[in-house]
Design brief:
Radius of gyration: 16 Å
Shape: globular
CATH architecture: 3-Layer(aba) Sandwich
Order of helices and strands: EHEHHEEHEHEE
Number of helices: 5
Strand order of the largest sheet: 3-2-1-4-5-7-6
Structural class: alpha/beta
Distance between the termini: 26 Å
């Protein structure tokens, strides 16, 4: 997308769930997006440091990034009152107790009247029995509530695709 349409994220309101160090959200911000990166409260200091370290690049590209706390399943978060064009998640399905709260959060974020954000989820498919079961449980629950489209490998950048990493486009039913 960057090569064919360099401004494709310019001004797009993006929410990243489970940001961790913020690589996905920071990349979007350096491509001009207005990004809210979220994670648990204890992850925010390092996330905010990474935003500060990349601020000049983000600003030079017309982007914006902030870090906010969001506990999945918390239906009272102010984040649910905001409008987003896109939600991104990278490698967030790895913990059984987080599956239902993550699904609930995705539902809440898609219950706005004005917009239904497009969700992009990438997940490494791990080969342990536990991880396979977690992914299957998550996929089944997700498919009950959302349309899930797998983006074929041949449509992904040759340097960044892998047969064991899924890229999904998800929209509300």
């Amino acid at each position: 997308m960057c090569q064919s349409k360099p401004d494709f994220l310019s001004g797009v309101r993006v929410l990243e769930l489970g940001s961790g160090l913020g690589v996905v959200g920071l990349t979007a911000a350096t491509l001009g997006a207005q990004v809210t990166l979220t994670d648990l409260p204890e992850a925010l200091p390092l996330l905010r440091l990474n935003i500060a370290e990349n601020k000049s690049k983000i600003v030079s590209m017309g982007g914006y990034a902030i870090a906010e706390s969001l506990v999945w399943g918390d239906k009272h978060s102010d984040i649910h009152k905001q409008e987003f064009d896109m939600i991104v998640l990278a490698d967030c399905v790895y913990y059984e107790d987080a599956i239902n709260p993550l699904i609930e959060t995705l539902q809440c974020l898609n219950n706005t009247i004005k917009k239904k954000p497009t969700i992009y989820l990438t997940q490494e498919l791990r080969d342990s029995d536990i991880q396979k079961k977690l992914w299957n449980d998550f996929s089944d629950k997700l498919a009950e509530l959302f349309y899930v489209e797998k983006i074929p490998e041949e449509q992904q950048h040759v340097n960044y695709r892998s047969s064991d990493i899924l890229l999904l486009k998800i929209t509300k039913k």
